[in-house]
Amino acid sequence: MHFHEKPNTYVTNVEIKVSDLQSSLAYYQEVIGFKVLQQESHKATLTADGKTALLTIVQPETVEEKTTFTTGLYHFALLLPSRRDLANVISHFHKNGVYFGASDHDVSEALYLSDPDKNGIEIYADRPEDKWTWHSNQVHMVTEPLNIQSILAEGNDTWSGLPAGTVMGHIHLSVSNLMEAEEFYTKGLGFDIVTRYGTQALFISTGRYHHHIGLNTWYSENAPKLGEHQVGLKTFSLRLDNEQQVATMKENLRAIGAPVTDIAEGFQTEDPAGNKILLKF
């Protein structure tokens, strides 16, 4: 989990808009295994360890369904501490009839599903980093069938929600123009490209993680921004290392014409696809 500690820049919290707070709360507690950290009339903050906010769900006063082709959230990804934890999640899903997809990415083993508003979710466990294959500065990743029986063999068939060591492993975004997104996230925010998939997707990270952020145009090339009242991504938060990094990042963002607005403990910006980012240290 050192990839999700300073001095790396990593995702800490994702905030999404939902159509019905209560039904979403039931889903995220009963199916995904979150605990409620804080709840208001139209907003709830969710946690795995009882103290760290990982996901915030908000029900806007006016709610609109997300149209098929917009920018925004492709999925957020919850990183579990171990393969055994992944096995226990799979067992829980099987027992409760929860449909999910599954892939082996070589660096990780992952499950995929969607919440009631079709917000994408990944739940995964990393393979040990010494098993990852690097070609210069590019990490080898694949999408192959997942050996679920091999994972289940490591489980102990106990599930009491997300384990306390769960973190927000990464976020994957739909963008409208990959070249613009690449400039924003590399020149503006200082991420390194670690995997490129032709002209339609790339993965970026700090500290040689396989990815803290994914970017793609698979269903969103030249697409409009997600509407203010549409369900989907509202904001996501990145943890920065220190005040000097904040100052440098602001300067770099302004140099490429990106917006910068000061907020408590940091600042806010927005990528070219309209995805809003809170940067805090």
UniProtKB/TrEMBL annotation:
Residues 10-126, 167-281 form the VOC domain. PROSITE patterns: VOC (PS51819). It comes from the Bacteria. Gene3D superfamilies: 2,3-Dihydroxybiphenyl 1,2-Dioxygenase, domain 1. This is Glyoxalase.
